[in-house]
UniProtKB/TrEMBL annotation:
PANTHER family: TETRATRICOPEPTIDE REPEAT PROTEIN 6, UDP-N-ACETYLGLUCOSAMINE--PEPTIDE N-ACETYLGLUCOSAMINYLTRANSFERASE SPINDLY-RELATED. This is Tetratricopeptide repeat protein. The lineage of its organism: Bacteria, Pseudomonadati, Pseudomonadota, Alphaproteobacteria, Rhodobacterales. TPR repeats lie at residues 460-493, 499-532, 568-601. Pfam families: TPR_10 (PF13374), TPR_16 (PF13432). Residues 58-73, 84-97 have a biased composition (Low complexity). It comes from Paracoccus pacificus. Residues 40-57 have a biased composition (Gly residues). Residues 20-117, 661-692 are annotated as: Disordered. The keyword Methyltransferase does not apply. Residues 1-23 form the signal peptide.
Length: 692
């Protein structure tokens, strides 16, 4: 087989190597993406600050920019004239006399040529490299496919196209390209892996066994790379089962279990193989081991097998040992079925191909585990979903990996497929909601959160997510109601789970102008979790902004700074607190640090200008105000106020606001300096009435 993970990993690094596709050796590789996010959408609104100018909330993820749409006339990697199925763009025949490779086997030995004209290859190749570097898999697949028209035997370009097609989920075109690579003598580890997956899906077990016979790994002598032996041994065992060779399959499982620390993984799959052929006793014997199948699907397998053995009481007892049963639709349905006296069928897997899919999924999980995610994780997860479309874990892992790459639209397709299959799992739905937010589809995210809370009204995390979405959309009244429900459901939860809904509800109430009602929520959040810098900062800043409890407010903000000394928003709060207290010289240093950390924040630069003015440094103040204006203030009113300060100084602006009920006078009503009763000088600045 010769499809080791170590060798296959080279395929991914080639995409980021200078000269890839031009027969040069790779010299660099792109850093891998972060692990998939599994947090509740909204998370901790750590950057929130109170007051009209208290800074952005900071907990809404920035939407990813849409990638440039590739030319929809880009030909795919299949034979011209064939109508490719799947989700790839429609294709047209090549232009300018280019002819795509037909896929027929060569009739004579190939001749090495100097290479295609650069004007036909360089553009698509560079576009493909750029798309691959930004994880835009769909665009990369199209551009790589276009490039291989000019270089049909360039193995690196072919593998680049194959990686991108699989990552984009376009398995129809990926399989067609892999077939062509194998037939044309351009086979690679990846094309061989796709070929094997195709044979498994077709149930051609003899051909699969022939491929496993070609591996350099020897299971009996335990020779060869461990990863290759583990994957090859498991696939061989399932292929033997598919070919009706159960005794050979058990032997292969047992030999594979001797590899390193693989025994728990192998014995779990062996147990599923036993259950698939009806040997429930042997399956349960393996699953009863302490380290075998200790995950959700393992629990489901154990429960279904006990039911098949007429051990209803033991099956129901297992539910008591599981956490979150009510949050998992699969477990709720299974429990209800057993309690009703029915005997659920064993359906963790339904065919040997599902077993092979589990092999790919196991490797995907291993590759995604750790501080950095191996790019091969997505390849294996996609192959698992290709072989077993009903495997919700394969789709969920693909979605989360795509989300970690910033491919939120592709991730949403996987979440939508889970929904269509009735697999509305809370973790998957919350991740999907987060993906929708990051794709700048807030209305769809809110609709999904509403649907989740309708389907599972007792799921507290669903209500927190809905409240966060409403709050980000500045729909504070429905946000408060969502947090009310979450707090009620979490009344007996540990403090770590309860402080956030109180804090978020307090923010919503404060933004509605109901600060006195918000204060008890902030105080309760601090009682539950006293060292939360976000809460300390928000409440402290709000007090300062309203000239209330100034000593306590300053103490809160100082504690927040001690807990998070490099947070620009919190340092801004400290500087602003000193400013409001008239301690202008003390305000300068924290405000300068805040701007150094967040130099592109218009509000912070504006605040620093005010502090400089109050400290008697008008030239520096004007510089910061001009910079704040250049950085585009959040509102036209904020911009007008900065312009007024540049023109007339902070003291004149404050006097105008005092004379106009806290608002800046309109240009027609602005008094000239000699009409003003007395123009204050820099350094005599009174504490502003509106937070600056």
């Amino acid at each position: 087989m010769n499809h080791s993970l170590t060798a296959l990993s080279v395929v991914l690094t080639l995409l980021a190597a200078p000269g890839a596709g031009f027969a040069q050796s790779p010299t660099t590789s792109s850093p891998p993406p972060p692990r998939p996010s599994q947090g509740v959408p909204g998370g901790t609104p750590a950057g929130d600050q109170g007051g009209a100018e208290g800074g952005a909330e900071g907990d809404a993820p920035a939407a990813q920019p849409d990638a440039a749409e590739p030319d929809t006339t880009v030909p795919d990697a299949t034979t011209p004239g064939d109508a490719p199925e799947g989700n790839g763009p429609e294709t047209n025949p090549p232009e300018n006399g280019d002819s795509a490779q037909t896929g027929d086997k060569p009739t004579k030995e190939k001749t090495v040529v100097a290479g295609p004209p650069m004007d036909r290859l360089a553009g698509p190749y560079l576009a493909a490299r750029l798309a691959a570097a930004t994880s835009d898999f769909t665009a990369a697949a199209n551009y790589f496919s276009r490039a291989i028209i000019s270089a049909p035997d360039d193995v690196q370009l072919l593998d680049g196209a194959l990686v991108s097609l699989i990552s984009a989920g376009d398995m129809v075109r990926a399989v067609a390209l892999a077939d062509r690579m194998e037939e044309d003598g351009n086979a690679t580890e990846l094309s061989g892996l796709v070929k094997m997956a195709k044979l498994v899906k077709a149930g051609d077990w003899k051909a699969v066994l022939d491929m496993t016979d070609e591996t350099d790994a020897d299971l009996e002598t335990l020779q060869g790379p461990a990863g290759e032996r583990l994957m090859g041994g498991l696939i061989r065992a399932w292929a033997e089962l598919g070919a009706g060779q159960m005794s050979n399959a058990i032997k292969s499982f047992e030999e594979t279990a001797r590899i390193g620390n693989a025994r728990p993984i192998v014995e779990y799959e062996q147990a599923l193989a036993y259950a698939l052929v009806g040997d429930m006793e042997s399956a349960l014997r393996l699953l009863d081991k302490a380290d075998v199948g200790r995950h959700l699907d393992g629990a489901v397998a154990r429960i279904e097998i006990l039911s098949q053995l007429d051990r209803k009481a033991d099956a129901l007892k297992l539910f008591d040992e599981l956490e979150g049963v009510e949050e998992e639709p699969k477990l709720r349905k299974l429990k209800a079925e057993i309690e009703a006296g029915r005997k659920p069928a064993f359906d963790v897997i339904s065919a040997p191909s599902d077993g092979v899919a589990l092999v790919f999924l196991t490797f995907a999980g291993a590759l995604a585990d750790g501080e950095d995610t191996d790019p091969l994780a997505l390849i294996h997860a996609r192959l698992a979903a290709y072989l077993s479309p009903q495997n919700s874990d394969a789709r969920l892992m693909s979605a989360q990996l795509l989300q970690s790459y910033g491919q939120f639209d592709l991730a949403e397709k996987e979440y939508a497929a889970l929904n269509a299959a009735g697999e509305v799992r809370p973790a998957a739905e919350l991740a999907r909601i987060d993906a929708l937010v990051r794709a700048d589809r807030m209305d769809d995210a809110i609709a999904a959160a509403v649907a989740l809370t309708d389907a599972q009204p007792d799921l507290a995390s669903g209500w927190v997510a809905l409240g966060d979405l409403y709050r980000r959309s500045e729909k504070f009244a429905p946000a408060v109601k969502a947090y009310d429900r979450a707090i009620t459901l979490l009344k007996d939860a540990p403090p770590a789970a309860l402080w956030l809904p109180y804090y978020a509800r307090g923010i919503s109430l404060e933004r509605m102008g109901r600060f006195d009602q918000a204060v008890p929520d902030f105080e309760q959040a601090l009682k539950l979790s006293p060292d939360q810098p976000a809460v300390l900062n928000y409440l402290g800043y709000s007090y300062v902004d309203q000239n209330r409890n100034l000593d306590a407010a300053l103490a809160m903000i100082k504690k927040a700074v001690a807990l998070r000394p490099d947070d620009g928003a919190i340092l801004d709060s400290l500087g602003w607190a000193y400013f409001r207290l008239g301690r202008y010289d003390e305000a300068v240093l924290p405000m300068e640090k805040a701007v150094a950390i967040l130099p592109s924040d218009s509000l912070l630069n504006d605040h620093l200008g005010d502090v400089y003015w109050a400290a008697g440094r008008p030239r520096e103040a004007e510089f910061q105000w001009r910079r704040a204006l250049h950085l585009k203030p959040a509102t036209p009113e904020a911009a007008a106020r900065i312009e007024a300060k540049i023109e007339r100084g902070l003291d004149a602006v404050l006097a105008e606001e005092k004379a106009n009920g806290g608002k800046l006078a309109t240009p027609a009503a602005v008094q000239t300096p000699d009409q003003t009763a007395q123009e204050a000088k820099p350094g005599d600045t009174p504490a502003p009435a509106n937070g600056g």
